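Input chain follows. Return C-alpha cells only.
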Amino acid sequence: MFGFLKKTNKSEAEKRAESLPFTKKVQFDPIPLERVEEELVGDLRAVLKYSPVNYYATKNSYLLCVFYYNEDYSEIYMRFESHVDDKMKGKIGFFSIDRELLRDILRKFGQNI
C-alpha cells in the first residue's frame, strides 16, 4: 500500500540488469557468499569450479545464480543468491560477463546457447 515510500538504492548495474528482457537460473552446491564474492572479484572464471546441483534433489540449501541478458547476448549480468528452504538468505552484487563465460557455465548443466 505504501510502496511509494520505499527507498531504493539500486546500483546502476542492478538497474541495467533488471531492465534486460531475459533471465536464466541455475543452482550450485551451497558456498558462503563471502567466498563467492572474493573469488569472483579476483577472477570471474572461478565460477567454473563450482559444482552444479539439481534443484529438485537439494531444495534445502543451494547457491542460485541468476543471469540477466538481452536477445543477442551482447550484455550479460550474473548475480549469486544463497537460498535455504527456498528462501533467499543473502545475495551479492552483479557481475558483467561475456557470452563465452555464460556458454561455459551453462554447459556444466547440459545447456547450450
